[in-house]
Amino acid sequence: MRPKIATSINTKNKDRTIFIPLQKGAYQLGIANTIGEIAHLWKLAAPSHDEFLQVPYLAFMESRPPGDMHFKYLVFCKNEKPIGVAYCQISELKIREALTDPTLSSFRQRLNDTILKAADMNALFCGNILLTGEHGSHFCPDTIDIKTESLLLKEGLEVLKNHCKKQGEHISLLLIKDLDNPRKSALHPNLGKEYKEFSIQPKMILNLRPEWNNFEDYLAAMTSKYRVRAKRAFKKGKDIEKRELNIDSIKAFLPRIDQLYKFIAEGAGFNVVTLDGEYFLNFKRHFPKKFRLYGYFLEEEMIAFYTTFHNQEELEAHFLGFANETNRTYQVYLNILYDLIKAGIEQKAGYINFARTALEIKSSVGAEPVDLFYLGKHTNSLKNTLFTPILAYFNPTIDWVQRKPFKELGNSGSS
């Protein structure tokens, strides 16, 4: 029996789910402020292969949202049957605060400040700004074609923008986040010229080969040059004690986790939101088995940590933290990458998502780049025209060398 579509009210918090006709009435759009009020419909169209679009994860995000972030949930229906979902995060982009680059000259910094003087804006992301990859929308492939899907998503985001305006919230920027090349190429022609295409950095993916039954199999697949490099890193980090932390241990080390995370976050080129240690504790409480936090210790002092989330076939390398001085001495970051690979093999993941940044060192352990794209539009037509050149100015090309650490398949010799 199909769920009845009707306006519903959560009597506890008075949140309201509304339904609006789309495509001249052929489809309906449900808009909700919380996942709880629309979960009964959401579950029927959410992708089973992606934990990040399932109700438990979305409820976790609501439980302690980062910064000023809040959420909207779109369910697309046809004949009262859910056929698609879209997850939207709304956050204020404070561009001048997010662009932290102490290496810029004073002239370049003043120029940036001039350009960005009026750039702070309220942005609506169809997707998840805490993750690398497309976790924004999904439509049941056996119900509609890609053109209809594109038109529904486009209209749905416009309806949502207008809905927010009626509630007193102005949206300046609409962004569809982290589309791979095939999906971007399918969606973009139907969204219209006002949606500009841009990319930031690729995500780095390591596909775990079926014959890698343990970490030694992974090392054996490397050329001698990269096996020597790995063993050198292990030797540098031999004094590090590594252990997984449970909820009580995370609580005990929370201030240090917060500090180590911020060492990395503050050194990044661009941060839309900044987390704190409580985020990791809350994640562990909601997903005690799927979310894991590992600490690196020297004489009981935590010098680094990293986190993972097991998302079906994917092992998500989530956030981490370490101090630069210990990283140089003990090759902490490289050891973390190898430990992530070891965890992926042990947990029988299909691949590891190493996310963005540090592209060359990730390629040295076998990760390959996968291009991801944003499709975005500014709601002001003049600013939308300037959108692409301004992005190009603040997103310079990153020069890096892609390493090839593995022997050629079928070649058992070393190089």
List keywords for this structure.
415 residues; 10-stranded mixed sheet; Aminopeptidase; alpha+beta; 2 domains
Question: How would you describe the overall organization of this protein?
Answer:
Helix content is 36%, strand content 26%. With 415 residues, the chain is α+β, with helices and mostly antiparallel strands. Strands 1, 2, 3, 4, 5, 6, 7, 8, 9 and 17 form a ten-stranded mixed sheet that branches. β2 (16-22) and β3 form a beta hairpin. It is globular, with a radius of gyration of 23 Å.
Which regions have little confidence, pLDDT < 50, spanning 5+ residues?
1-14, 96-100
What is the C-level CATH assignment of the largest domain? Answer: Alpha Beta
Task: Supply the helix-strand structural class.
Answer: alpha+beta
Shape: globular
Compute the number of strand runs.
17
Count the DSSP helices: 15
Name given to the CATH architecture of the largest domain? 3-Layer(aba) Sandwich
Give the helix level as a range of percent: 25-40%
Largest sheet data: 10 strands, mixed
CATH topology name of the largest domain: Aminopeptidase
Number of domains: 2
Q: Strand percentage, roughly?
A: 25-35%
Radius of gyration: 23 Å
Residue-averaged pLDDT: 88
Distance between the termini: 63 Å
